Amino acid sequence: MDTTLLIAILIGVLGAGALVAALVIATRRSAANPEVSELSVRLSQMTEAQAAQQAQLAQTLQAQERALAKSVDERLQQLTGKIDATLEKTNKTQKTTLDELKERLVRIDTAQKNLTDLSSQVVGLQEILSNKQARGAFGEVQLQDLVESAMPPGSYTFQATLRDGKRADCLLDLPNPPGPIVVDAKFPLEAWRALQSAETDPAKKEAERAFRRDVALHVKAIAEKYIVPGETADAALMFLPSEAVYAELHANFGDTVDAAHRAKVFIVSPTTLWALLNTMRAVMKDVRMKEAAGIIQTEVLKMLEDVDRLDKRVDHLEKHFQLAEKDIKDIRTSANKVKNRGDKIHDIQLDDGTDSPSIEDTLDEPPLLRSVE
Q1: Element (H, E) at 169
Q2: pLDDT digits (tens, 9 = 90+) for 276-290
Q3: Would you tell me how many other CB atoms lie within 10 Å of the CB of residue 323?
Q4: Which of 123, 133, 155, 244 is deepest in the core (most CB within 10 A)?
Q5: 188 in Cβ contact with 214 (< 8 Å)
Q6: Within a domain: residue 61?
Q7: Whether residue 141 is found in the same domain as residue 259
Q8: Is residue 240 part of a domain?
Q9: Number of domains within the chain
């Protein structure tokens, strides 16, 4: 085998370290063999070339390492920026969500507080309705609110005292007919509650009898107290401050309602009383308009009389103006005559031996004839 080929194989297999060892061995043997000396020279050249390649490879690797580090750094910066933006967006979203959650919690607290207040108000309303005097005051307050909101001021009186000394909850001052109408607030709550809570047929029938009896007693009391001939209208109103009681009464106790109508006592609820008050207000407005129309008609007739007098006075004044105009014309005529006489006197010429015409003659003659003569 050729020595050079062997060296090349050794370099390829053993690498640079083996090559250095081979150089050392070849140097030692160079004194004995010239071929070995030549081989050592070639090995030295190859070693230098290999070192140069290794240095170039190291530079290339360092450049690639720097580029890779720069690329990795840039990628890390981009990734960090994206992570920061994502975290900031997440923080904003979380903050918005927390603010909305706080707002909802505030609303929930407010609603809970309102529910608590409403519960206390319901308990208070039940306590009010459980007491007859307080229940009566509740009905009167509701009646007062309805009347004040629907009727014009001065057309009603609360706690009005009639001539017989009886006091009405409200007196509506309507024109005749029908005249003043009394509204009395009643609330048969116990009988209605018993009717609603009755579970058996006997209990239900007993509650119906009690409810019918209470309503009939209220109707009778109103008819006897507040329908006063000559002072009030021939009817009165019984105000039930509960739509449920009113609906129950008209749905299942039609005979009681008919009996109240025969007694001239009309049962109304808040809704029907509101409609009735608005109708009364329209009637009062129509009556006032008619009264105003009568006043206007009377004033118009008086105004026509004044116009007639004014026309007569204008006629008198016109006659005076006509007489004054005639007098002015006469004065103007006299003034013209005086002026003509003056002109004629001025035109007279006094000649010797000539008879001068008289002033009367010259006044009656035209100036042209006088000049011809």
Answers
A1: strand 167-172
A2: 888 888 887 877 777
A3: 10
A4: 155
A5: yes
A6: no
A7: yes
A8: yes
A9: 2
